[in-house]
């Protein structure tokens, strides 16, 4: 994920969470808001309940890699915030990728 595709503003981050469309499963909550720009922006939130700093950073690195590898699955013109739940610690990398893709597909079907 390139630096230009990251939601940096705390105000925008909170706005997406409060006003965006939500899709959730046991491991993730994805909040999305449409926008006018061509590219997608992403934000990743991993709370302190998930683990210590090392664990949280590992999960964020894995999610960034999953996003980079599956960028075509995200519809354009959206801002996304991916919130991780504590249950994510039980998943391997490949299971994490499958669950995130499954949740994205569920969200696309709900929009149509």
Structural features, described:
- The protein has helices at residues 10-19, 53-69, 93-111, and strands spanning 21-24, 28-34, 41-46, 78-84.
- The model has no long low-confidence stretch (mean pLDDT 88).
- It is α+β, with helices and mostly antiparallel strands.
- The protein has a single domain (3-106), classed as Ribosomal Protein S5, domain 2 (2-Layer Sandwich).
- The chain contains three helices and four strands, in the order αβββαβα.
- A four-stranded mixed β-sheet has the order 1-2-4-3, sandwiched between helices.
Topology:
Elements: H1 10-19, E1 21-24, E2 28-34, E3 41-46, H2 53-69, E4 78-84, H3 93-111
Number of contiguous helices: 3
| Secondary-structure element order, N to C | HEEEHEH
- How many E-type strands? 4
> Approximately how much helix is present in the residues?
40-55%
Averaged pLDDT: 88
End-to-end separation in angstroms reads 27 Å
What does the largest sheet look like?
4 strands, mixed
Taken together, the total number of domains comes to: 1
What global shape is seen? globular
Rg, rounded, reads 13 Å
Strand content: 15-25%
**CATH class, anyone?**
Alpha Beta
CATH architecture: 2-Layer Sandwich
CATH topology group: Ribosomal Protein S5, domain 2
Biggest sheet strand line-up:
1-2-4-3
* Structural class label: alpha+beta
- List low-pLDDT spans: none
Main features:
four-stranded mixed beta sheet; Ribosomal Protein S5, domain 2; alpha+beta; 112 residues; 41% helix; 4 strands
